[in-house]
Design a protein that fits this description.
4 strands; 459 residues; mainly alpha; two-stranded antiparallel ribbon
Length: 459
């Protein structure tokens, strides 16, 4: 009697295999799914008690675990000869980004500083390692379209919880930010109060700041919209529809220009996957929801509109404009490597509500190149995926991921993106998901039993 042949286990370091290589039973990336839910659902300032401080948050601890697993897999897995074209390009892009940032960090160590600056450099390096670990692990463990949908479902679930928390903050006196926080955790910052802007309360959901929450709510819309059309189960499509509407409705309550602009960028990209009739329906429904918000929460809509109409006299806009002159002076002194990664703490210099300006002062030209590598690498991942896509479902999935990634990267022009843990991890997760699937759609449809999907209700 012939014994059945066992499927070989996938290797972390290698390019993602085809679905056929994974065997009939497709493993679920549960650690990635857990991270995707925890990042937006748990406040970043809820940490383990002890000396870890900000590094003791559940999401940060899992990110360190991801980096450790990637390193261990590389050094302990038997590696046959691999051609360069067989390596996942997303991994190479992240490693290039990592190398450039390490280069600015190493150069900054030679510059004079003080205890505050040195501590800032160390913290920023630790954060960088965690960010890169998340991207590498997701790139190498999410291998199929179905696995990517599985992970996206958990990400949308976490974002939906954050949006629901924000909705309760804006319309009721309930605050459920700490509902899912494990017992024994402590807060490293006081997050008990909410700010006011233009006569409207700025909700934060589970985020550290209203701007971060507005951006996360904005990128939830295309992700949830995709699942509302293509999720395999009817219940999942219904829940995704609720999440999409919830994110769209609650986003103005953050009273954030960054969130509104991120939503505009997301929809401008995602609209290219819609037919004219669907696009018209989306516009009509969106206008109807805005009208309902105008009636139910006029202060938030009026305050958000005022941030655009009165931007010339807005103190935040004026301070952002003044930042350019200060950054230009700093750039003249250190044009190539800047002050080093983490070498521009706001407590010593000034706040910069622009991640690209942060890249200029901390990394000089090299820092700008590193940011560009990340941004353009995500766009390249979307383009490469669309060229290989062979089903409506996969194309729509890539458009949703690409639109969300573009929205969050665009917000880097309007606030210091990488200073906020939730937005940073979501950014790197989206980048990795764009590069995670490296097989043909035909193989996916054949081996996983998922036929080229059509939207719910399509005839």
């Amino acid at each position: 009697m012939t014994m059945p042949r066992l499927a070989s286990a996938p290797r972390l370091w290698k390019r993602a295999n085809t679905d056929a290589d994974l065997g009939e039973v497709e493993p679920k990336p549960r650690l990635v799914a857990l991270l995707c839910f925890i990042v937006p659902a748990l406040p970043a300032y809820e940490v383990l008690p002890g000396p870890l401080r900000g590094n003791g948050s559940p999401a940060r601890l899992i990110a360190f675990m991801c980096f450790t697993l990637v390193v261990l897999a590389y050094f302990t897995t038997r590696k046959p000869r691999t051609r360069l074209r067989d390596v996942n390009p997303g991994v190479l892009i992240i490693l290039l980004y990592f190398f450039l940032q390490l280069l600015t960090y190493a150069t900054g160590l030679s510059l004079p500083g003080n205890a505050v600056i040195d501590s800032s450099k160390t913290r920023t390096l630790i954060v960088l390692v965690a960010d890169v670990g998340v991207a590498l692990y997701v790139c190498q463990t999410v291998r199929t379209v179905r696995q990517r949908s599985y992970v996206m479902g958990f990400l949308v679930a976490g974002l939906a919880f954050a949006c629901f928390s924000g909705l309760l903050q804006g319309f009721t006196s309930l605050d459920i930010r700490a509902l899912l926080v494990p017992p024994g955790f402590v807060e490293v910052i006081d997050a008990s109060t909410l700010d006011d802007r233009g006569g409207a309360l700025r909700v934060v959901g589970t985020s550290e700041h209203a701007i971060e929450f507005g951006v996360l709510a904005a990128i939830t819309v295309p992700l949830a919209f995709h699942l509302a059309r293509y999720a395999e189960k009817s219940l999942h499509r219904q829940l995704a529809t609720i999440a999409c509407v919830l994110a769209f409705v609650v986003m103005p309550s953050a009273v954030s220009r960054s969130g509104a602009l991120a939503l505009a960028v997301c929809m401008l990209i995602y609209m290219f996957t819609m037919r004219v009739r669907l696009l018209a329906n989306v516009v009509i429904i969106g206008m109807g929801l805005l009208l309902m918000m105008k009636i139910a929460a006029p202060n938030s809509i009026n305050a958000l509109w005022a941030t655009f109409a009165g931007s010339k006299d807005d103190d935040s806009v004026i301070s952002r404009t003044d930042d350019y002159q200060a950054v230009a002076e700093q750039f003249k002194q250190h044009p190539w490597f800047g002050l080093g990664l983490g070498g521009y703490p706001p407590s010593v210099y000034r706040f910069l509500d622009n991640q690209w300006l942060q890249a200029v002062v901390q990394g000089g030209m090299i820092g700008v190149v590193a940011m560009s590598v990340l941004a353009l690498g995500g766009a390249a991942g979307m383009t490469a995926g669309l060229r290989r896509a062979r089903s409506m479902r996969e194309r729509d999935q890539l458009y949703a991921l690409g639109a969300s990634f573009a929205g969050i990267m665009f917000s880097a022009f309007t606030f210091d993106l990488f200073s906020f843990q939730q937005a940073t991890y979501v950014c790197f997760i989206l980048f990795a998901l764009l590069w995670s699937v490296r097989h043909s759609s035909a193989a996916t449809a054949t081996s996983t039993g998922v036929a080229p999907a059509r939207p719910a209700g399509a005839r």
